[in-house]
Amino acid sequence: MVKEQLIPRGIHDPKTLAAMRKVPRHLFVEEALKNQAYGDFPLPIGRGQTISQPYIVALMTQALGLKGHESVLEIGTGSGYQAAILAQICAKVYTIERIDSLLVQARKVFDSLHYLNILTKLDDGTHGWPEHAPYDAIIVTAGGPRVPEPLLDQLADPGTLVIPVGDRGVQDLRKVTKKDGETTEKTIEFVRFVSLIGDHGWKSD
Ligand code: SAM
């Protein structure tokens, strides 16, 4: 996966590559899909949701530019795989999911792997998690119509937020950087994510 899918497409950050080598992706998918877990595509995880393609997980992780000391907020726990990757690289991961059954399953995997630096919450993540803010980095793994205002407010200065923004079919993956009170945005790539549903996202499934 790392040699054939990530390095040739420009994933070069050593911490990202080490995490992608280490985390057992097959534990985050259901039994019947385990033999496809390391394939170059997203997979269904139930309730109409997906675990992202390995390359997209690595691209978003690399874009955060993590050094190791950071506190990171993730919106859209899903299978828990992205949170597990982040947990190898930063100090603490706070991850929010709106679908109970997905969060229960993700927590089981975190426990079985003893990933103790991941905290989870069942909620509409478009409001962020104000109690633990500010976050050095925020990653949104579902596509919304705009950057949710509460997430920008909860981003540290300096800080980096990565989010797919666009319509419900295609989005651009945006990297938003906050520095000295100013925010700048750049598009990294075009992507297709499931919808970010919530008060500061799309209104319904
Ligand atoms: N990061 C996940 C992984 O590694 O498996 C992939 C997540 S999947 C592409 C997107 C997830 O975002 C879904 O599980 C969906 O239920 C969740 N989601 C959508 N809107 C949300 C919201 N407002 N708050 C929290 N989770 C949300």
What is the topology?
Blueprint: H1 2-6, H2 14-22, E1 43-46, E2 49-51, H3 54-64, E3 71-75, H4 81-89, E4 92-97, H5 100-112, E5 118-122, E6 135-140, H6 149-153, E7 155-166, E8 171-179, E9 182-191
Parallel strand pairs: 3-4, 3-6, 4-5, 6-7
Antiparallel strand pairs: 1-2, 7-8, 8-9
Helix pairs in contact: 2-3, 2-4
Bound molecules: S-adenosylmethionine.
Features:
205 residues; alpha/beta; two-stranded antiparallel ribbon; 6 helices; 25% helix; 29% strand; binds S-adenosylmethionine
Average of pLDDT: 98
Strand order of the largest sheet: 5-4-3-6-7-8-9
Residue share in helices?
25-40%
H/I helix tally: 6
Order of helices and strands: HHEEHEHEHEEHEEE
Q: Strand tally, please?
A: 9
Strand content: 25-35%
Q: What small molecules are bound in this structure?
A: S-adenosylmethionine
For this entry, what is the oligomeric state of its chains?
single chain
Low-confidence stretches: none
- Structural class, by secondary structure, is alpha/beta
Q: Provide the gyration radius in Å.
A: 15 Å
* Ends apart, CA distance between termini: 32 Å
Dominant shape: globular
Q: Quick one: biggest sheet? A: 7 strands, mixed
